[in-house]
Amino acid sequence: MAAATTSAVRSAEVLAARLAAYPAHEDRPQRDRMTTAAPKSTPRQDRRKARTRARILDAAEEFFASADPESATVARIAEAADVAIATVYQHFAGKDDLHLAVVERALEQNERRMFAVYDSALPVPLKLVDAAGAYLHFYLETPQLFRVIALRQGRVSDDTADSPVAVIMAERVDRMTRALARVIEDGIHDGSVRPVSPLDTAHFLWGACNGVIGLALRPDRLKLDEPEMRTALTQGLEILLAGLLSDQQRDRGGRLAVELRERLQVALNS
Known about the structure:
The protein has helices at about 1-20, 45-65, 75-80, 85-90, 95-120, 125-140, 145-150, 165-190, 200-215, 225-245, 260-270. By secondary structure, the chain is an all-alpha fold. Helix 5 (about 95-120) runs parallel beside helix 8 (about 165-190), helix 6 packs antiparallel against helix 8 and helix 10 packs antiparallel against helix 11.
C-alpha cells in the first residue's frame, strides 16, 4: 500500500509540473529530465533510449486507444513493448504519465499538420480546404491517435474533466480551434468569407469533420467504409464552404467555384 501511494504521489507531481509549465504551440513541449547529476550519455545511447521510449509509447497507445483502456497496466504495456517493467519506469512515472505522453504525442502530430496550413501564405479559401485535407490525413495515417484526441477514446476511469490529461487536451484543442477562427476572421477582413461568428463557425467545422470521420470508426451497420466517408466529407464541406465563402468564391449557380471544388477533391481523396 505504501509503495502504491508513493507511486501515485510521484505521478501526480509529474503531471502537475507538466501542466503548470505547458508551453504555447510555438514552443514544443520538452519532457522532464532528471536534475540530479549523471554521467553524460553518448549520442548512440541517446538514440537507443529514444527508440525504447518510442516503442513503449507505441504499445501504450494501442491500449489507450482500444475499446478497453482500463486494460492498460504498466506490466502489460511493458510486455507489449518487449521491455522490462523497470525500463518503463526509467522513462515514465507510471500509467498516468504514459497516458499523458500518448495524448501529448497525438496533439503534437495533429498540431504540426494544422498550423503548417494556418501559418502558410495561402489565401483563406485555400487554407480552409487544405486544413480539411490535413485533418483527414491525420486520421488516415494515425487512426489510433485520432481516436484519442478527437473522439476521446482511451479515457481511463479517473480521467475527469479537471484531470491533467483532460485539461491539457482541452487547452490544446481550443488553441487549434481558435487558430481556425483567426483564419476565418482574416477571410472576413479580406472579403473572401461572409460575415459570420469566426469562433462559432470554427467549432462547427471541427465538430462536423469529427462527426463524419467518426462514422468510419463505428462498430455497427452505420459504419462507413473509407471511400464512403471521403465522399460524404467532400460533399458536406463543399456545401459548407459554398455557404461560408463570399460570392466571388462561387460560380453563377451558387456552387463552390470549380477551382476550389477541384482542390477539395484532391485534398480529401488523394
